[in-house]
């Protein structure tokens, strides 16, 4: 198993970097989109931009909260899964009123960590680097920052590679010797 966490700030180039790595993969590539579609023109434009950059040969799976099940089902030996992004996946555990679904999150988070440890596929995971600014004022935003920060740390511990992308430039944080 080869796992690689690619993190960075908003518009840092982390998705583009992950896509470049996926382009170099010899086997099948499955793009695992985690964002929930919304009735929002600017968000639709973001999705279209990501879609335009992907080769037509890549598969697409729009994952819901059950990301671990997708990795378990689709992660065949020789394949590459590009998961974009963990922050959008975490957003699926906040309901319409902004309430965090703790039990569902804890269950799916644990399942994701198990699935990543078990899959024979190569996996590229894109996530937002979080918490380099001031502590957010709202409780929901603080909860999001806390949970994504913890998830990033646990995923980074599992991954063979961790790369921080800033200004489109990758900086290796962890690599095999």
TrEMBL record:
EC number from the UniProt entry: 2.7.1.156, 2.7.7.62
Xref: InterPro entries: CobU/CobP (IPR003203), P-loop_NTPase (IPR027417)
Protein origin, superkingdom: Bacteria
GO BP of this protein: cobalamin biosynthetic process
Entries under Gene3D superfamilies matching the protein: P-loop containing nucleotide triphosphate hydrolases
UniProt signal peptide: none
A GO molecular function held by the record: adenosylcobinamide kinase activity
UniProt key word Acyltransferase: no
Pathway(s) the chain acts in: Cofactor biosynthesis; adenosylcobalamin biosynthesis; adenosylcobalamin from cob(II)yrinate a,c-diamide: step 5/7; Cofactor biosynthesis; adenosylcobalamin biosynthesis; adenosylcobalamin from cob(II)yrinate a,c-diamide: step 6/7
Active site: 50 (gmp-histidine intermediate)
Protein residues bound to GTP: 8-15, 33-35, 51-54, 62, 84
Annotated keywords: ATP-binding, Cobalamin biosynthesis, GTP-binding, Kinase, Nucleotide-binding, Nucleotidyltransferase, Transferase
Top-tier EC class: transferase
Pfam families: CobU
Reactions accelerated catalytically: adenosylcob(III)inamide phosphate + GTP + H(+) = adenosylcob(III)inamide-GDP + diphosphate; adenosylcob(III)inamide + ATP = adenosylcob(III)inamide phosphate + ADP + H(+); adenosylcob(III)inamide + GTP = adenosylcob(III)inamide phosphate + GDP + H(+)
Function (record text): Catalyzes ATP-dependent phosphorylation of adenosylcobinamide and addition of GMP to adenosylcobinamide phosphate.
Family, per entry: Belongs to the CobU/CobP family.
UniProt protein name: Bifunctional adenosylcobalamin biosynthesis protein
Origin species: Vogesella indigofera (Pseudomonas indigofera)
């Amino acid at each position: 198993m080869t796992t690689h966490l690619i993190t960075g700030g908003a518009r840092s180039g982390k998705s583009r970097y992950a896509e470049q790595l996926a382009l170099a993969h010899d086997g099948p590539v499955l793009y695992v989109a985690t964002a929930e579609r919304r009735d929002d023109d600017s968000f639709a434009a973001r999705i279209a931009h990501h879609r335009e950059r992907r080769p037509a040969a890549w598969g697409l799976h729009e994952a819901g909260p059950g990301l671990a099940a997708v990795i378990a089902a689709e992660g065949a030996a020789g394949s590459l899964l590009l998961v974009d992004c963990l922050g959008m996946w975490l957003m699926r555990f906040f309901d319409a009123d902004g309430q965090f679904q703790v039990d569902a999150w804890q269950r799916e988070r644990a399942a994701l960590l198990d699935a990543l440890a078990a899959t024979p596929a190569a996996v590229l995971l894109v996530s937002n680097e979080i918490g380099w600014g001031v502590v957010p004022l709202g409780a929901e935003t603080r909860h999001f920052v806390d949970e994504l920060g913890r998830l990033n740390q646990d995923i980074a511990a599992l991954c063979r590679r961790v790369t921080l992308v800033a200004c489109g430039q990758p900086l290796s944080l962890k690599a095999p010797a």
